[in-house]
Amino acid sequence: MTTTTDDYFMAGGGPNITALPKVSLHDHLDGGLRPQTIVELADAVGLELPETDSDALGQWFEEQSNSGSLVEYLKTFDITTGVMQTSDGLVRVAREFVQDLADDGVIYGEIRWAPEQHLTRGLSLDETVEAVQEGIEAGIADVAAQGGSIRIGQLVSAMRHADRALEIAELAVRHRGNGVVGFDIAGPEAGFAPSRHRAAFDYLASKFFPATVHAGEADGLQSITSALIDGRALRLGHGVRLAEDIQVEREDDEGTYVTLGALSQWVKDREIVLETSPSSNLQTGAIEAWGDDILDHPFDLLYQLGFRVTVNTDNRLMSGTSLSRELAILSDAFGYDLVDLETFQLNAAAGAFLPLEDREDLADAISAGFEQA
Questions:
Q1: Largest CB tally within 10 Å, which of 95, 113, 136, 196?
Q2: Residue 369 lies in a domain
Q3: pLDDT at 1 over 80
Q4: Active-site position among 189, 217, 326, 342
């Protein structure tokens, strides 16, 4: 391996979170580059950077991402996608991405990215998918050579403000035997409802191909409703603003009393996975209706009410984070113990875009790892 991940521990001590087996469902390829890799790839393609020292560049990404606006947050991706326009660049980024996930204790990860954003230097859509898969397979081999094991799937995303969703959906299905496990729409949420891409989602449904949809991050309940109805979403990317459909009646020493709206009740009853990303949700203002601190995040409310919550990084570079760090942050904020952290991983395993038998095996591996902690 060429990189290491800091160890993180639960509040008040406890097991090493980094060593625990984990599942990552919401992690963007263009949001997880190593700063040094950006520096080297930018030099090779002649891309100007705001900082040429890797440490300073990493700090720049974090500072630029703390805007409180998803639109401003997304502007940092001009740089990362800028160095991912060649086959070699895509292979390297994907390979290192897998290495970094394994160093963080991830045993199954889904990497989402938008092929249509990587065509400026002559690659075709199919060539970009093939390059990323080549990098993924090289990364898996690197992990195996170090005595580890990791499984990775691609989530192919269409940009929701563009008009290529059907074409990208067809691309995803075309590569379902070459590492692609699901479909997503990403990019600016407000004003670009999933209903705009109904034809793509109809096509995916006809091919029995699963979709997760970014919803409930920069837009509210209408966006989530459209993700479920128009997008047939099996998971919600972030989904935190679903809490807008939960009315807190009162809180006292005996607990919190709430009333669920029809939408939130449906999501809970159907066990639709929420792909929350705590640090990112703070950076983009997704939880501003409740506050600007991790303690204000509706994650704990959703968890205590029985929603199928998962913990994710979204963009490790922009948030300066890892999955272990996100779990440690939540543990510190809400007093979670090992049982809670295991529940989050089992929720993620249940929502993974894998065959049922593979999800059961993944759950068994998680439980075995937590028992040894």
A1: 113
A2: no
A3: no
A4: 217
